[in-house]
What does this fold into?
Amino acid sequence: MDWKKAARRAAHWSLPAGLTVLSLGWTVYAVGEILSRQAPEALAYTVAGIYDAVWLYALAMETAHRRQGSKATLPATLGWLFLLTSVGVLFTHGLLYATAVVAVIGAVVPAASKATLIMAVEREATRISPAAQAQIDAVRSATRDQVAIGRAVTRAKADRQTTAAVLERDERKARGKAHKTRHKAVEKLTKLTAEHPVGNVPQEVPALFSDEDLARVLGQWSDGGVSPGVSPVSLQVSPVSPPPGLPAPQGGGHAPLDWPGLAQVAAVAGVDTPEPGEPLSEEQLTVVLRWLRHSDNPPLSYRKALAAYRAAGFSAKEERVRKAYAALIDAEDSQP
It folds into this structure.
């Protein structure tokens, strides 16, 4: 037997064994001294020894039955009967020949011996093998891993939802601030117009410089100054955007749009063909975004798809387009 295992076993049984020996010795002394007042001393201590021998045998049989897991009615009954008798004898002996404190201590010793013996036997009877303990540890470890992963996934989902809510809140704040600024500007313009009326005010504001106009004007500058006959800033620049009747130009590098393909995609989806400039349902918006996304190879990103969406003449709030595009990407990713 391994000496470490033997040492652990000895430590496990040392306290119950010590208390049992102390209890038996004290009981022999107390019973013998009480009986010696009524009978010869040799006979008294012989009876006390027989009493303790029967009690010890009952304890041993009860311990053996408990370790085997079998029923031990008679040994258990005798053990409890002798325990109560010993407690009473030691308490009485302490009161007769010593003090009340000694009587209480003497009564506690057998009870403590019985309690520790029961605990030691129960632990010995429920001991499991190292292989079974290893399996239990593996199951507990796997369970803790699953719980930790589940908590991490839950926290990640919560962080994603929180971030999305914060971004939506910031966007709404920015829109509200812009709307408030425009409102204040309109109020101030209305107030100034009412306080300082001016005649011959043009009804239309001159068109602003586009990038092409700015490049054309800057290209006419010479190293020494402005070319003759050219003003660095004209009073009004004609708009360079295409007439309203013409389709908007496509983004640079993007293939021409396949309008019949849009009708085919709409027919497959079971919705009416979306028309530029008309309000679109959620299904029609998804059809347009799917058509634009796959109109080029590789598929367009969100920014390019949004630019193509605007260029094709369709209109919708950017937040709505972004959510529809995200739902489209999720649906495509979930497909096998």
Q: What stands out?
A: The mean pLDDT is 77. Residues 28 and 139 are 52 Å apart (CA to CA).
